[in-house]
Amino acid sequence: MIVRTLADIVGTERDVAAETWSSRRLVLADDRVGFSLHDTIIHPGTETTMWYQNHIEAVYCIQGEGTLTDTATGESHEISSGSMYLLDQHDHHVLRAHSEMRMICVFNPPCTGSETHDEQGTYPLLVLDDDGEVRPA
Ligand code: 9YT
């Protein structure tokens, strides 16, 4: 059994900041359970374009309000505490945060730790080898 608190993560290398968000990574690939679990803050007034071409992500909002747009269809959804969205089709999407949003995010395959979006809003597909080294899949 592994027990961690958010306080254990904040300020460590598992606390990854980008321009529009901060992701506190509670479970990562090196835990070897097949998914990663992130407690993510989306900064208010920001717009983030994302496209997880290599991952499936479930996002559960527990704080704040924003608008999620599926770029392919143009369909928008209002997201607030209690809303979940599952990017089961590697959906290209935009999240506009009207207030500070706090999201619980699950990635499969798991993130290895330091992933941030490339210019397309994609995370690279990285794996841990048997020696615990991170390498491209
Ligand atoms: C909601 C969302 O996808 N934000 C981007 C950060 C990502 N979820 C992460 O790595 O925690």
Structural description of this entry:
- The chain has 137 residues and is mainly beta.
- The chain is built from one helix and twelve strands, in the order αββββββββββββ.
- The chain has a six-stranded antiparallel sheet, with no helix packed on it.
- The longest helix is centred in the N-terminal third of the chain and has 4 residues, at 6-9.
- It starts with 5 loop residues before the first helix and ends with a strand.
- The structure holds (2~{S})-4-acetamido-2-azanyl-butanoic acid (9YT).
- The site of (2~{S})-4-acetamido-2-azanyl-butanoic acid (9YT) has 10 residues, from β2, β3 and β10.
SSE order and pairing:
Layout: H1 6-9, E1 15-17, E2 21-27, E3 36-42, E4 47-50, E5 56-63, E6 65-70, E7 76-80, E8 84-87, E9 93-97, E10 101-108, E11 126-128, E12 134-136
Antiparallel strand pairs: 1-2, 2-3, 3-10, 4-9, 5-8, 5-10, 6-7, 6-9, 11-12
The structure holds (2~{S})-4-acetamido-2-azanyl-butanoic acid (9YT).
Residues 21, 23, 38, 40, 42, 50, 59, 95, 103, 105 line the site of (2~{S})-4-acetamido-2-azanyl-butanoic acid (9YT).
Please supply descriptive tags for the structure shown above:
single chain, 12 strands, mainly beta, four-stranded antiparallel sheet, binds (2~{S})-4-acetamido-2-azanyl-butanoic acid, 137 residues, 1 helix
- Give the oligomer, counting copies of the same chain as homo and different chains as hetero: single chain
From the spread of the alpha carbons, the general shape counts as globular
| Unreliable stretches | none
Number of strands: 12
* Largest β sheet strand count, sense and barrel closure: 6 strands, antiparallel
